[in-house]
Amino acid sequence: MALRLLIKNAIITSGVSLRINNSICKRDSSYRSSPIAQDPSHYTKYEVSSSPEEWKFVERLLPLTIIPPPPDGKNFPSGWQPQTAKFGQYPYFVHRTRNHMLPVYLKVSMRGTRRITQINNVDGDIWKLEEALKKYLQKVYGDKRIIATKVHEVCGHLCIHGDHVSRVNEWLLKKGL
After folding, report:
1. How far apart are CA 72 and CA 36, in angstroms?
2. Which of 145, 133, 124 is CA-nearest to residue 172?
3. Subcellular localization, per the record (predicted)?
4. Where are the beta strands (DSSP E) in 6-103?
5. Is 74 helix (H, G, I), strand (E, B) or coil?
6. pLDDT, tens digit only, all 177 positions of the chain
7. Which of 23, 75, 148, 165 has the most CB atoms in a 10 Å sphere around its CB?
8. What Cα–Cα distance (Å) separates residue 119 from each residue in 25, 36, 60, 104?
9. Rounded to whole angstroms, how far apart are CA atoms 49 and 43?
């Protein structure tokens, strides 16, 4: 604001027209006072091309419309493992997400003081999965922790109190789920 007043005073005292002042410091304060947009040819020069040779370079940049099937192999640099267990091998089954990842999430609430590990996409006997996971976690932690769980049978969710994401992922991968 001080710069604008300084320029106005300098222009008025020097006798230069006020039209220069408006072009030097013009600020649009709202949508209504902003200048009306013109057609794109006014701002940039572009050329529309329908050449298939040039379109190859554009296709590389576009995101995939479908998720490709997981690659074949056993050892991947990221540590990802394909699902080896088949439906019906266990009384329960944990489906992978559409990106072929494990559906195990950490839910943080109460300003970071409450941590809950949630397993989604559970099919079959969710109570047996809860029992097996509880037994595994008690074996890992010993009698140091109480493993509190909550089963949402209709949605196919299993919640475990605490941050157990890495242990649950490890157990699911060991089972092939």
Report:
1. 55
2. 133
3. Mitochondrion
4. 92-94
5. coil
6. 455 545 555 555 555 554 555 555 556 567 677 777 787 777 788 788 888 898 888 888 998 888 888 888 878 888 888 898 998 999 999 999 998 999 999 999 999 899 999 999 999 999 999 999 999 999 998 888 889 999 999 999 999 999 999 999 999 999 998
7. 165
8. 58, 52, 35, 5
9. 19
